Amino acid sequence: MEPHRRQCVLIVDDDGAVQVSLALLLKQAGFATVCADDPRQALARLAATPVDLVLQDMNFSLRTDGEEGLALLAQVKERHPGVPVLLMTAWGSIALAVRGVKAGAANFFTKPWDNAQLVELVEATLQLAPDAARATSNPPRSARAALDARFDFGAIVGEHPKLLKVLETIGQVARTRAPVLILGESGTGKELVADAIHRNSPRAARPVVKINMGAITPSLFESEMFGHVRGAFTDARSDRKGHVASADGGTLFLDEIGELNRGDQVKLLRVLQDQRYQPVGASRAEQADVRVVSATNRELAELVASGEFREDLFYRLNLITIRLPPLRERRSDIPLLARHIGAGVCAAYGLDDIKLAPAALDWLAAQPWPGNIRQLRQTLERTLLLAGQDRPGGRPLTQADFIATAAVDEGVPGARLGVDGMTLEQVERHMIEQALQQHTGNISRVARMLGLSRTALYRRLERHGLGDGEAGDRSNE
Ligand SMILES: Nc1ncnc2c1ncn2[C@@H]1O[C@H](COP(=O)(O)OP(=O)(O)OP(=O)(O)O)[C@@H](O)[C@H]1O
């Protein structure tokens, strides 16, 4: 690729054969390379030579726990924060790789590697690097304003450095067609990120087609995704376009990708590999030009390690990974989010513009929020509706109003939002049960209250064994 001709990659590995074969591969792809045998040499090379990217092994002595690799990563990040690091890990040490990525590595790959995929990964990582380096040197406020001047992030509110890093990456990747994997806990805004990637891409005028992988029945996967021709099966009375064809020229958003079963994973892989698919019952394959963005609240790399998710599909999807921070890691954004969401709720329900007292904002900022922004939205909505009506002189809502609403929800005087000791799954179930009770099972209202689509709610009801699922009610989703 032309723009990367003179970029330099530092290869850190104690195995001479690995150094030679990687150097040869990267040179053929147009990069300059330098090699180092161990962390000490690597840091010396970095100090002496302008390096654009580091490819590093995780073990350099008889130790095999990867701690030496993590220590080197930490030093590179401290001394050269703008230089992206790719980790080389042995098969079976995905948990280590995930630790590395959380500690600042741009991505990882396992040995033995696929040459073409590795070069693609190096190129994609380098494309992201220069702006990421610039972003870290900007003060946060002007950084958000500067980003807004260049990109349209829609409803994404926030200016915490961790969010700014996400926004910067969105801006960088949007213009490419590289697949993006969005990771983050439930309710952190993954769908908003997918929307922003599409909106800022050259594909913005074409459709973004969103599919919830957990909601597709395995027997219908092919016909839903690829369509079918008339007569392909008993009920196929006419040709039907699948999601892939509908997204032609645009973006395919595969939500909850971790829920896809292994049989369907291989069918999806084929589309990603050669942009071709075969409608059910058709005699030949069709071409589709789609950009794939996927999301999950599960740690996909761990599903690869446990054998539930195909490794080849994982590498296809995660060329670029965006990790959304949980709300508790960007607490400084909570007042901003609360004011924004509060104003939206008032407008939606025709309430006067209700203010939040500073102490209430502090209280909200201190809560654990295991359900993240979705839970914050739900709490604000309930409190504004319950306490917002009855405020002598239009006084701002206080901390006491929020605590009182939480207590009503819990059915326990003085109960708090705290969910200590509960797993995320238990919290989710608990929230759904509360909502069902409050709205006496009215699915549309429960879905709205939880900030979910009805399809997503039905799937969760099924998963938690709640309610009877009333399948017919999904029709207008
Ligand atoms: N940065 C943000 N600013 C404003 N609102 C946000 C932000 N992030 C998320 N939200 C709101 O929080 C709710 C949850 O967001 P979203 O559906 O994108 O989360 P998600 O990570 O896709 O969740 P899930 O994994 O459960 O599908 C939505 O109502 C969304 O509008």
From TrEMBL:
Residue span(s) of domain Sigma-54 factor interaction: 156-385
Domain Response regulatory: 8-126
Gene Ontology biological process: phosphorelay signal transduction system; regulation of DNA-templated transcription
MF (Gene Ontology): ATP binding; sequence-specific DNA binding
Classification via InterPro entries: AAA+_ATPase, AAA_lid_NorR, CheY-like_superfamily, Homeodomain-like_sf, HTH_Fis, P-loop_NTPase, Sig_transdc_resp-reg_receiver, Sigma_54_int
Cited SMART domains: AAA, REC
4-aspartylphosphate: residues bearing it: 57
Keywords linked to the UniProt accession: ATP-binding, Nucleotide-binding, Phosphoprotein, Transcription, Transcription regulation
SUPFAM superfamilies according to UniProt: CheY-like, Homeodomain-like, P-loop containing nucleoside triphosphate hydrolases
Protein name per UniProt: Sigma-54-dependent Fis family transcriptional regulator
Source organism of the structure: Massilia forsythiae
